[in-house]
Amino acid sequence: MADQGSRSLLGLLNGIAKYTYYGDTVITDGFLKEELYPNTAEDEFQTLLTKCKTLMKSIASADMDYNQLEAFLTSHTKKKEGGITKEEATVFTKFWKNHKTKIHDSIVSQSTWNNTLKNVSWRIDLKTQARHIDQLHTPTAIVELQLANGQDKSKEAEVVRFEMDEEKLSSVIKNLEDIQKQINVHCQ
Predict the structure, then answer these.
(1) What is the rounded end-to-end Cα distance, in angstroms, of the chain?
(2) Based on the domain organization, do 12 and 91 belong to the same domain?
(3) Domain limits for position 81
(4) What is the pTM of this model?
């Protein structure tokens, strides 16, 4: 019976993921109850459903690695009220191992509305012709950016090319370092 319970819970988690993260509109809470928990009281099923949705949302929004997941689920197995069993924790772990990447990609895709940077390529050229002699043989960075449409993946990537002299390149590098520092501050 415990094996059937584990399969039903895994089916419930898969169903929740399908309509929450993968955009499947056919699956509903009623459909999941009818298919997986037909003999369970409605209020009992709603409690289980809410608990599963809450745990899944916490796991997905934190994009937990497996060590974080283990610690998170262990803390929930120790809760007296509203916690989960070790068997349920095992099912959550199995589910997350199979869906982590796909759910992460789905969340990123749903939160991207503008173009995204797909690729960067660059090279350094030396000017061989110039209006002024002091501009000859100065290095210039030629940069090419491939931008993919955030919403419409079927469109071909847009390519933007530009060049920068040493001063502009130094300014861009400083700005990127500032961005990295801010990211590090917010990630700690």
Answers:
(1) 44
(2) yes
(3) 2-110
(4) 0.65
